[in-house]
Amino acid sequence: DRKQAEQRLAAQEEQFLLAAEALAGLIYSVDLDTGRVERLRGLYDILGWERDEVPATYAWWHDQVHGDDLKQVEADFKAAVAARERRVTSRYRARHRSGHWRHLVDRAVVMYRDDGVPYRLVGCVQDVSEQVETTRSLVEADERKDRFLAVLAHELRNPIAPLRNAVSILRTADFERPELLQSVEILDRQLLHATRLVDDLLEVSRITR
Length: 209
Description:
With 209 residues, the chain is α+β, with helices and mostly antiparallel strands. The protein has helices at residues 2-22, 43-47, 58-64, 67-82, 129-171, 178-208, and strands spanning 26-31, 36-41, 87-95, 101-112, 118-127. The longest helix is centred in the C-terminal third of the chain and has 43 residues, at 129-171.
């Protein structure tokens, strides 16, 4: 029985290690009583450090978190504990070994004692810097597009106004040839259409703002 139990435990550990290997990111376990951290893998991929190069403490990781984000990370954990939630997710920036900031998503499971006091935190940190930068680029491109549409609409309105005035003057003229009057009517209709299109462009810009 003991041998079978050992074999089952070894098989479970192997499955866990394989699952951890397949999962991109830093996998960690924190003893909340001592603050000691076991980092299974992924520290180098996330922040450029080897495990044996840094202290195995939760405090060291907090020191790498951006100062503007640390309070929110702590608030996320406290809120989860207060509600006895098993899962807590935080988004923050952490300093890479080379000095630049990485955007991370930290998903963890909180383990509680019977009295409701948390004693362990097991989680995975994933680098989402590329997605964040892509989203930022898309937002900036969208803003540039909106500014372009607004400028374009205003620039198009400037020549349309004198053209409509010219058409109004032409309509009062006494044309002997009917095709000239027909041409004026065409100009009038197309300018009216162009005016509506420009107004639509302006409206798109206003709605976006």
